[in-house]
Amino acid sequence: MCGIAGVCMPRDVEAAASHVAEALQDLKHRGPDGRGMFVESALILGMRRLAVIDLVTGGQPVFSEDRNVVAVLNGEIYNYLELRDGLRQRGHTLATRSDTEVLVHLWEDEGAALCAKLRGMFAFAIWDRKARTLLLARDRFGKKPLYFSRLPGRGLAFASELKGLVPILRGAGTAPRVREQAIYDYLSLGVVPQPDTVYDGVHAVRHGHWLTFGDGGLREVPYWQPELEPKASLSYRDAQEQLREKLSEAVRLRLRSDVPVGVFLSGGVDSSAVAFEAARHLGGTLRTFTVSVADEDLNEGPVARRTAEALGIENVVLPLHVAPLDELLTIARHFDQPFGDPSAIPSLAVSRLARQYVTVVLNGDGGDEVCGGYRRYLAAKVLGCVSPVPALGPAMRIALSRVAATKRRSAAGLLRRFGRGLSLSAGQRYLVWTADLLLEEDKAPIWRGAPQRPTEAWVEDQFAPGLSAVDAQVAGDLRINLPSDLLVKMDIATMAASLEGRSPFLDHEVAEFALRLPVSYRVRGHRLKAVLRDAYRDRLPREVVEGRKRGFEVPLAAWLAGDLRDVVFDALVTPGCRVSEFLDAGFVRAIVDGTAMQERNRPGLVYALLVLELWLREAA
Q: pLDDT tens-digit profile of 521-550?
């Protein structure tokens, strides 16, 4: 696990090298255990290392036998041992025991097709000195980040985080400017959607893509995308058995490490299934980590502790005492872009706590997307039944609008949002069923800049045609929420603590299998993640298998009324408010005062505006 940065074809090699060195300093949290650089006339490659595999000879950059190919890697190639065996059989000599070294030899044998051979989370750069070609590539789901930008002349710069890329751009005389469309989209999504960023001319390498750059210019090509059709033909019992087998193998590969490994264990079925499989491979030596919070409605500690006892594994309780204001400032520094998902706060805190015990943690991320765990999937299933009966929709919408909901995530809150979604376009419906912030009709009248492309139009472009109502929502999550929100949160939160997070459910073989299962296996009647729950019914406690869906939630409304109240008013209701450069100041005040958007996710919107304001000040 590392942070990488570099410049290809710089105008001034010496100056570019110093800027890359500055970038590596800014990325030190991603790799506190070592630093490496490679410099020549056409390329500067740099990396910061978090030592996880091959602690002795695993430094980077790594080279081919003739030193004509050089590479740096952020992430892990989990099937590296099998790949190394194949490379030796083809006559390659390997100088290290690291996973990074397989990249240079695979490039020699396969070219850019090497990406399809890899099973892991990765963002890497390979330089072929003879061909004068740079390859940048990113894993299938986008677990590891990689950003790039063109430089004046023919150059290109890249880095694992924007905080590493921006110094290189400034050094080259191209200080990035804030992109208005990014702010406009953020106000609907709560995040800046990839592959674009908050800055003009700065992009993320798309997940599941490789990019080549050299004398022939810039070329970006997809090598993988999730397929939800055609559906697999197998029995429900066989689906359970095969899902267990594939998840077990994914966990086994992710336990490969030369440093201590643990599991984040909540009260949910996803992390509990991961812990079960890890315990099968490691036995009682496995250490799990559970977050304990004071709010009994949000506390999953007791369930997780009972699960650990049933599995015969150690459980470490991490009491989570969060200072929201302090964490807000950390978010503004670490996330590099406006990031309005409030669960980033406890994610940062628990990552710091876990790092006191281990360097690597497995988690249940991706289980909801690939196995059908979000309540909006159930709503989409109902929508698919309602849509063919035109008269039914308006009647349901009127009835559900009268449901009293005091909490957005309650059953009543879900019903109200489901009712609102009945009359909306697919893009609007997705926004309402996820972040539930601002729609085009809300933003356009109070936007102070030039007209922007409606966010819901971009969202609708992400849906694949011809899918069922449920799979359309899943496809949206795989293209929007997962890469731009959840995986960004996990990467930044863990890396800020120099901790590596691994996600077995996002193993592409697990995901490919689960996504191709019939929708009725994933959302079975009113049950979410049915095939996963039933696969582990006799292996996990009943309270886990049948437990309700819980996210990593925070008492946001209470924070805004308490710990964050003064900073909200000081930041957003003042003459110097930066958010008011984009939005009408009266509207912002009405949101803060609580006189607007009462029927919507107002706490989420206030928090998103506060994060935006703090980020704008930090970026100034």
A: 999 999 999 999 999 999 999 999 998 766
**Number of other CB atoms surrounding residue 517 within 10 Å:** 22
pLDDT tens figures, 68-83? 999 999 999 999 999 9
Domain range annotation of the chain: 2-222, 236-371+483-545, 555-620
CATH number for the segment(s) 236-371+483-545: 3.40.50.620
Q: Closest Cα to residue 498, out of 23, 24, 29?
A: 29
Is the pLDDT at 509 greater than 90? The verdict is: yes
Whats the size of the chain, residue-wise?
620
Amino acid at 588: V
Q: Which residues contact 205 (CB under 8 A, 6 or more apart)?
A: 123, 136, 137, 138, 146, 147, 148, 158, 195, 211, 220
**Distance in angstroms (rounded) separating the CA atoms of residues 5 and 30:** 12
Q: Between helices 375-386 and 392-401, what is the axis angle to 10°? A: 140
Q: What's the whole-model pTM score?
A: 0.95
Phi-psi region of 554 (alpha: psi -120 to 50; beta: other; left: phi over 0): beta
How far CA 471 is from CA of 5, 200, 228, 309, in Å, comes to 37, 33, 7, 36
| Burial of 446 (C-beta count, 10 Å sphere; 0-12/13-18/19+) | middle
Q: From 3.60.20.10, 1.10.405.10, 3.40.1550.10, 3.40.50.300, which CATH number describes the 2-222 domain? A: 3.60.20.10
Distance CA 110, CA 112 (A): 6
As a whole number, mean pLDDT of residues 182-204 equals 98
Among 64, 23, 26, 66, residue whose Cα is nearest residue 46? 23
The type of residue at 219 is: R
pLDDT in tens, 145-174: 999 999 988 899 999 999 999 999 999 999
| Cross-strand pairs, 275 | none
236-371+483-545: same fold as 2-222? no
Backbone angles phi, psi at 47, to 5 degrees: -150, 150
Q: Would you call the peptide bond into 575 cis, given omega within 30 degrees of 0 as the criterion?
A: no
Burial of residue 22, with CB atoms counted within 10 A of its CB: 0-12 exposed, 13-18 middle, 19 or more buried: middle
pLDDT digits (tens, 9 = 90+) for 382-437: 988 877 656 556 656 555 655 655 555 566 666 777 888 888 889 999 999 999 99
Single-letter code of the amino acid located at 286: L
